[in-house]
Design brief:
It is a single chain. This protein has about 375 residues and is of the alpha+beta class. It has three domains: about 55 residues, Alpha-Beta Plaits; about 200 residues, no CATH class; about 90 residues, no CATH class. It is about 30% helix and about 20% strand. The chain contains 14 helices and 13 strands. Strand 8 and strand 9 form a beta hairpin. Helix 12 packs antiparallel against helix 13. The chain is globular. It starts with 13 loop residues before the first helix and ends with a helix.
Length: about 375
């Protein structure tokens, strides 16, 4: 039995959670992406796995925006620590003040995974973009437990993760009035294997482990995508070629999940109650609202979304329109590079080989040692 064609599977894991016979397990392929594997000896062909699939049932979960706005967190320190305008932190704070629970992607020992938090002190763990597919772990199961316990729950994730959770709750007939879903405009998710190999590659060259990789650092302003590596000895590298290497991999689209090139969720029809993004169209549409600390674009898609936005007193809002967004992923998915098969053929022979061939990583050999020595002396 096949739930959906392999190149359409987004790996959300909802099928595994719904299976009444535990016939589905999740396994990683050679690219590091997770896929469901069905044990035909256990499967009773009940079809529940297809009913929760966000790709198969996209038409059941979509909403059209009822309001579009820009937003900035009133706390500049939070805004500077966020990828765009700090909206997520304000929504999370609102839910946690009501003794609620918040789920989102965090970097745990440089592995991107979804975690559950119940304290405002931990919001920082979920703040900021992570351009890697997160390990959802037991989050869907935990959300169900929290909702059944009467908790207010905010779940933030990719549109496909939100769709899987939404369908899972519907099929399981779990009351979801207390659930707030926040998705974001997504370029695609990069391979966890590539990110893990990148961290190992950096550790070997820094000669000291990376404590944290920041996918978006505003050290040079919101409009300039700068990555940073924070080493365990306290050194911060935002300048060397190696510190900026992962964004080159991400923007090349060579290491995205195959389903990202077919993504049904790259549309104005949204899954979440709220959709977040960078407000890149601001310079053109509302230049007086632009600043380098970052501004969020918010699509408010449901009445539930309107309520949480209305109550988010830590945010400053201004009206906008869909025409202002400058977000191509609201119109179409990322194009699949024709060189993707060749890239992976090289990659499977070694991370270093792929970086040299596709990202001119030979520059590292010429500049890296001298540059890093200078950085580490600071």
């Amino acid at each position: 039995m096949e739930i959906v064609e392999r190149d359409w599977c987004c790996g959300c894991g909802a099928c595994k959670e719904i299976c009444p016979r535990t016939a589905i397990c999740i396994q990683k392929d050679t690219e590091g992406f997770c896929y469901p594997v069905i044990d035909s000896n256990k499967c009773i062909e009940c079809g529940l796995c297809k009913k929760v699939c966000g790709v198969v049932n996209f038409d059941k979960v979509k909403n059209h925006p009822i309001q579009v706005c820009g937003a900035k967190n009133k706390d500049d320190s939070i805004r500077m620590d966020s990828s765009s305008g700090g909206s997520f932190s304000a929504f999370a704070e609102l839910v946690l003040k009501q003794n609620g629970i918040v789920y989102g992607a965090a970097s745990v020992d440089n592995v991107i995974r979804h975690i559950r938090i119940d304290s405002e002190e931990d919001i920082y763990l979920l703040r900021g973009s992570k351009y890697v597919q997160s390990d959802i772990g037991s989050s869907f199961e935990d959300v169900i437990s929290d909702l059944k316990a009467g908790k207010k729950v905010l779940f933030s994730g990719t549109p496909c993760q939100c769709a899987g959770l939404k369908n899972l709750l519907d099929v399981k007939k779990v009351e979801s009035t207390n659930l707030i879903l926040i998705d974001f405009v997504c370029h695609g998710v990069c391979s966890p294997r590539v990110f893990a190999d990148y961290i190992q590659y950096c550790n070997e060259r820094y000669k000291t482990p990376i404590a944290e990789h920041r996918f978006r650092d505003k050290i040079k302003g919101w409009g300039k995508h700068t990555e940073s590596n924070i080493l365990q000895n306290g050194t911060k590298d935002s300048e060397s070629f190696i510190s900026q290497m992962f964004k080159s991999v991400f923007y090349s689209s060579l290491a995205l999940r195959p389903s990202c090139y077919n993504c049904k969720f790259t549309t104005t029809q949204r899954v979440g109650d709220i959709t977040m993004a960078d407000f890149w169209g601001l310079k053109r549409s509302k230049p007086d609202q632009y600043d380098e600390k970052g501004v969020s674009l918010l699509l408010i898609n449901t009445e539930q979304g309107k309520t949480i936005v209305k109550n988010a007193s830590n945010l400053y809002f201004f009206d906008a329109s869909l025409q202002d967004t400058d977000q191509p992923m609201l119109e179409h998915p990322t194009e699949k590079p024709s060189s993707r098969p060749a890239f992976w053929e090289v990659y499977l022979r070694g991370f270093d080989k792929a970086m040299i061939k596709y990202f001119h990583a030979g520059k590292i050999r010429r500049f890296f040692t001298e540059r890093i020595k200078m950085i580490l002396k600071r």
